[in-house]
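Repro:
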Amino acid sequence: QVQLAESGGGRVQAGDSLTVSCAASGGTISVYTMGWFRLAPGKEREFVAAIPLIGLYTHYTDSVKGRFTISRDNAKNTVYLQMNDLKPEDTAVYYCAACRTTQLAVTSSQADDYQYWGQGTQVTVSS
């Protein structure tokens, strides 16, 4: 069973950049599709980005396309979410999640497909 731990959250100004990380332990992320979700106050959990076993075929929600980049480093057992041109509406707790799979290029935006979750890291963007 893999454990996930997010880090790198913080408080930034609109237009700033921030990278959050997700370090895995107890297993290798190389057999998991990895995803990022976020939860803002008063809103439902939202899919942000996902990266399959083959890192080329990433998937993003429309509101972050062109601003956010998900990447993975299997050797470091870590997934990253680089966030550029941050907006106040990006304010949320960001969660890393892992989906066990044998499919090399498939991602999922459905939270129910992910078996393991981290505790989250807060990102606050002020205007």
